[in-house]
Amino acid sequence: MYDKSRKLRYLPLFYEDLKDTIDYIAHDLKNPQAAENLLNEVETAILKRLPIEDSFEPYPSLKDRENLYYRIYVGNYVIYYVLLNENDTNFMEVRRFLYKGRNRKLLI
Predict the structure, then answer these.
(1) CA-wise closest residue to 9 among 91, 107, 97
(2) pLDDT tens for residues 20-39?
(3) How would residue 4 be classed by pLDDT, with cut points 50, 70 and 90?
(4) If you placed Cys at 97, which of 17, 30, 66, 90 could pair as Cys (CB 3.0 to 4.6 Å)?
(5) From CA 64, how far away is CA 29, in angstroms rounded?
């Protein structure tokens, strides 16, 4: 029987996006509690999506891509991920964390 479960991995760019956002909220906006809440919401949303990662509509990209992008919305932010298979291992690879108001077409 085929095991459809996926392993989770993150690109360094995702961590950079997330760190910049959390730092901005905690330090510039002086709201560390909101930053911590957002971090918890992001983690929960990703782990909740993992078992059903391909049950959602792919991101309608204008670029030709080797892998389809999917989205998870968390408040005013969007998490982007792809589904990969490498050496018979399935991965949900989390790639970006961006504010909804940004021009995401240039960044994705």
Answers:
(1) 91
(2) 999 999 999 999 999 999 99
(3) low
(4) 17
(5) 38
Residue with tokens 């995702």: 14
**CB contact set of 78 (below 8 Å; sequence gap of 6+):** 71, 72, 96, 97, 98, 99, 100, 104
Between CA 55 and CA 21 the distance in angstroms is: 28
Contacts of 34 (CB under 8 A, 6+ apart): 25, 26
Instruction: Say if residues 21 and 101 touch (Cβ distance below 8 Å).
Output: no
Q: What is the CA radius of gyration of the chain?
A: 15
Instruction: Mention every residue, 6+ apart, whose C-beta is less than 8 A from residue 16.
Output: none
Digit-coded pLDDT (tens) for 40-55: 999 999 999 999 988 8
